């Protein structure tokens, strides 16, 4: 079973837009060859014929370097035929392919992950046969990430069958569950409840904003309404404390660990060379840490006259309409 960490949608990006790119390309080619003819896109019958042939051309470009298109009586009784190669197609649709990559990057960001955290990418849907999509993802992800598509793996499942196959597997996994359990897990309160778009956290400031330390309270995609509470140490020497509820922005900080001390011994000559080689091979891996910083301020309150070394109790409530209520006391 899979758990959905995030989703990303753009209804203006998909296979229909790739079809439209080819429709526009071949319509312009037709008008170039027949300048006195009407635009085939202006006629419903001509447009339907062109769209039907374009889909077949797009599928042919997924498995070959070139593809041809032929339509009888496209406009004003004129036949039309043309060819296109994959390089030209990739150039015409480059903006749409880039949009696919941006959608994946957005889904990873919303899941509060890093590209390096992804082990496997599975492409689903008929458009996933397009080699350019797989090659763009291959460039986006590190070599250790598996990109499962027909263009990158001969053993990849057919993307057109993937959704149906996955539904069948999921059904086989839940067939042992009681009906009440299934209905409860698919209840609208569970499946369509609103979620936070970004993480939220707490920033305590006593003198200058630069001295505040951001502490995350709720991760992105947490269902609302929600309530978080906690006790926090008063910064500096007490006094007036400003409590800010902010959107949290996370990033991955990559740092190198301190080098190991070289161990010296009495060996000389070739032995030293061998020891140096061993040390170079055992270099420690980079250390990756998640670093938070405060973003947009959502709400704030102030506690006056706090004691040195004291603690404040803060409660944050996010309602279903995404309004924020903050209560604080020493």
Describe the structure.
This protein is of the alpha+beta class. It is 34% helix and 29% strand. The protein contains nine helices and eleven strands. The chain has a four-stranded antiparallel β-sheet, with no helix packed on it. The chain has a three-stranded antiparallel β-sheet with strand order 7-10-11, with no helix packed on it. The chain has a two-stranded antiparallel ribbon with strand order 1-2. Strand 5 (199-205) and strand 6 form a beta hairpin. Helix 4 (94-110) packs across helix 5 (131-140). The longest helix is centred in the first third of the chain and has 20 residues, at 44-63. The radius of gyration is 29 Å and the shape is elongated.
Biggest sheet features: 4 strands, antiparallel
End-to-end distance, in Å?
45 Å
Q: Low-confidence segments, ≥5 residues, pLDDT <50? A: 273-280
Strand order of the largest sheet: 6-5-8-9
H-E order:
HHEEHHEHEHHHEEEEHEEE
Roughly what percent helix?
25-40%
Work out the number of β strands: 11
Rg, rounded, reads 29 Å
Question: Number of helical runs?
Answer: 9
Shape: elongated
Strand portion, in percent? Answer: 25-35%
- Category by helix and strand content: alpha+beta
Average of pLDDT: 81
Which short descriptors sum up this protein?
330 residues, alpha+beta, four-stranded antiparallel sheet, three-stranded antiparallel sheet, 9 helices, 11 strands
